[in-house]
Design goal:
Length: 238
Amino acid sequence: MTTDRTGGAVIPLSQISIRIIPEPHPFEIAHRGAAEEAWQRIHRANPALFNGTVMLHSTMDVEDGRLTTLAHRVPYSALLFFLEQRPVERCWHLFGSALLISSDNRMVLIRMGDRTANAGLVYSPCGSLDLSDVVGDAVDIDGNMRREVLEETGLDLRTARAEPQYGMVETGGVVIIVRRFFFDLPASELVERARAHISAETDPEIDDVFSVGTDDAPRSDYQFYMEDLLRWHFGSKR
């Protein structure tokens, strides 16, 4: 796979294999000094950010509905520097994004709070792969989705019906793995529960939750890939 934009098309996937290898990522080695310098600037502007361990990928192959990739542990500073430089040859940022679909066919979205790197942006619950998503020498993408949704909204994906297959959209070196989860509750109830979860948090990552449907107008604060995912779910009605 190249780092060229795929036009927002969501590619169906039946299987995902993310294997972690111990070697440093070549991008992180080549840009360690520049990434640290950029991190100092970013951290001064937002001291709440934490330079923990996340993943960057050096291969990204799709064949017969199966995605295979090699992941490298890198500091968060290297990931942020990559996002400033992308696209970069043989370097990808991959993460999972659970699409929360209500019984009245609305999608529940979150808006990120000021203390996060994506402050003010609106998208489906998600987060970078980190060490808590690792099982053996592989990443559990479903575990990543479940953890992020639970942390951010308090909603448990185990209470929803998961779509059997996944989807993938790639744009400029960023790969989003999506899976739809169908809840037996209307959007108003899901939003109310998520907002109650936020209000009970002492330092929440998100500052609001709401839902969108086929008749909602586009927003200027959507994350760059979000319209692609909305069109994929709602089809020509958006």
